[in-house]
Amino acid sequence: MQSERAALRPLDQAALALVALVGEYSLLIMPFILGAMMDSNHLSETRAGQLISLQLLAMAIASVAVSVKLRAGQSVRPLLAVAISAICLANILCTLPVSPAVFAGARVLTGLGEGAVMSAAAAAVCATTDPHRVFSLIGTAVAVVAALALVATPWLVEHAGPRGVFWLLAAVPLLLLPMLPRVPILARASESSFGLIPRGVRARAAGLLFAFLLLWCGASGLWVYAERIGTYQGLSVQQVGLWLGIGQLAGVAGPLAAVWGAPRLGSRVSLVAGSFGMAIAAVCFVFGGTAWLYGIGSCLASFWIMFVVPCFRSTMAGLDGSGRTVAASAGFYTVGFGVAPLAVAAITTEGQGYAPTGIFCCVCFVLSAALAAGLRASAPVEDRHAATPAADRHAAAAPTTEPHTAVAQANENSSRGLSRISD
User: Fold this and answer.
1) Is residue 415, in this structure, part of any structural domain at all?
2) Pseudo-torsion of CA 318, 321, 323, 329, nearest 10°?
């Protein structure tokens, strides 16, 4: 029985980061998935955006469903294996000449698998001794893989056709299946009764989740339509891929800055700075009108999103050591990511520019910053025995094999390990 957070070796941390990447991989090349759906299935931009939103809605449903089913001492490895297999099968279906209904169902199945992977992997990170460092490592992996994928995907489309994008999405997750045995079992701190969490903590967790949703709503508006925004400004598809790849390389510095800066700045300042940084990036990216400003906007957006996401998630882990808030954040993340394509499709007239998209994204980032600025510091969530008298708590600190003591010890470890990122 696992009573404390897992102290992972570097190889185990890398494996966990790569497994978590499976849930986000399609989002990294979403601009090219949008184009592949339009070209291979002769869909309009609006219809392709709707399918992306449907996939992201499925991701949100799966991630929330997984987050409420997590239990202490649970192994998420079987769930990850099933979810990864579903992702592979769904993307293989998308390479075949299937009916529109089957194609839409395959995108839904992809979303369900990716949502389950994101939620389970995020909860597993909360079972480690230093979630902030592991979340930052995941951010670094995202930045590096995205930089490679954004440069390689246009080449793949050119030589293998638009359906090659779906073959890539099917193949990559299979390569990571051997890493599942290194995913840690959920810590005893993962068992927490929501009804016993103090109301103030629940309110702050809700504020964080909605700020996270708005952040990704704005980021999705930029990201999903990044190819269209670039080509409207006169860039070729290859130039768009090159600038986005360069931007992802610039994003590698974001998680490193989060590891160093967030403990010194405090969570509130880090979250506000990241959200306002994204607003500045959106202005350059959408309204610049030149390749250089498009590239600068890409670099700024990648840096700030890679900086602020580990700060959001580690703040959630510090507030709620059960891992459920972080797991639920995958659902809010995908809802925000899914709302943006629908909103952008509704407010943008095809062929007449993307100024409404830029305004929409900036508003989302400013609102996210406002929510983060209004958060107050709070103590981490206590377990169901936290309200016991002092004598009982001292007794619980003594070595024992009782389950309630294991929970108390794990929560104490959670509080100590994450206090440095709190305000």
Assistant:
1) no
2) -30
Could you tell me the sign of the dihedral formed by the alpha carbons of 379, 385, 387, 389, in that order? negative
One-letter amino acid for residue 238 of the chain: Q
Contact between 422 and 267 under an 8 Å Cβ cutoff? The reply is yes
The continuous run of DSSP H or E covering 347 comes out as helix 324-347
Here the tokens at position 71 are 């239990």
Q: Which residues of the chain have pLDDT under 50?
A: 1-4, 188-198, 377-423
Number of independent structural domains in the chain:
1
Would 296 be classed as within a structural domain? yes
Tokens 């990704």 -> residue: 216
pTM: 0.67
How confident is the model at residue 370, as a pLDDT? 92
The DSSP call for residue 191 is: -
* CB atoms closer than 10 angstroms to residue 405: 18
- Position 225 scores a pLDDT of 83
Domain that holds residue 145: 10-382
**404 part of a folded domain:** no
The pLDDT score that the predictor gives to residue 199 is 54
State which H helix or E strand residue 292 sits in. helix 291-319
- Do the Cβ atoms of 114 and 66 come closer than 8 Å? no
pLDDT for the residue 7: 54
What is the Cα–Cα distance from 16 to 9, expressed in whole angstroms? Answer: 11
What is the domain-level CATH number for residue 66?
1.20.1250.20
Any idea which residue has 């949703």 for tokens?
A: 213
**Do residues 412 and 396 touch, judged by C-beta distance below 8 A?**
no
Residues in contact with 418: Cβ distance below 8 Å, sequence separation at least 6, in sequence order: 131, 132, 314, 317, 318, 321, 380
Residue 400 counted as domain residue = no
Residue 266 pLDDT: 85
**The pLDDT of residue 367:** 94
Rounded to an integer, what distance in angstroms lies between the CA atom of residue 361 and that of residue 29? 19
Are the beta carbons of 29 and 212 closer than 8 angstroms?
A: no
